[in-house]
Structures are given as structure tokens and as C-alpha cells.
Amino acid sequence: MPSAAPGRVLEHPKPEEIRLEAVLHALADPVRLQVVRRLAELGTEAPCSAIELAVSKSTSTYHFRVLREAGVITQVYRGTAKMNALRRDDLDRLFPGLLDAVLAADAAQRRRTGA
Coil, strand or helix: which one is 109? Predict the structure, then answer.
């Protein structure tokens, strides 16, 4: 993986620093849950621009930052693109079944509400 340009490295919590309450807070917001759902569907990293959100760019940046700081996603620069990926391995190891349960509950709610 190419190294990021100086000043372009984003901080992420180490796995042992990821807290359940921070993860749950990050997943509780519908916009952030939409990001997580899309990344889970893709199964690979994706640029921010590949995840359409009905919010402003600055608000979108905020939501991605909350997810990164909670340890839900990783973000790395590849050229000018900020690439995002779920930290599925870390989350599954720390909180077995949590991500799958949240995504399943989200899908059930969207079916129930017609969203």
C-alpha cells in the first residue's frame, strides 16, 4: 500500500481502544448506518463519493469522522481520494455478531417501514 503524503494520515483507534459505547453511538445515526450498510454491501473499500448521502459535504465529512474515530471504519488517502472500509475483522473479534445483528435489524426495519 502506498504511503500517504505527510499530513494526510488519519488517526484511528487501535483495536484495544475501541469501545462498545462509541461503536453503538456511531451506529445509532441513520446517516452513519447508511454508510456502514453501503460499505458492508460493497465488501471492499470505497471512496466517500461512492456513498451517496442526502446531506452536505461538510456534514458527510463529519459522519465519516465519527465512524472512523469510533473504530467502525478505516480511512486512508489514495491519491486525492479518501478510501473507506469497514473494520469488520476488528469489530467481529471485539463484539462478536454485533455488526451482523445491527445490519440485519436495519434491513428488517427498512422492509417494515418501506424505506
Answer: helix
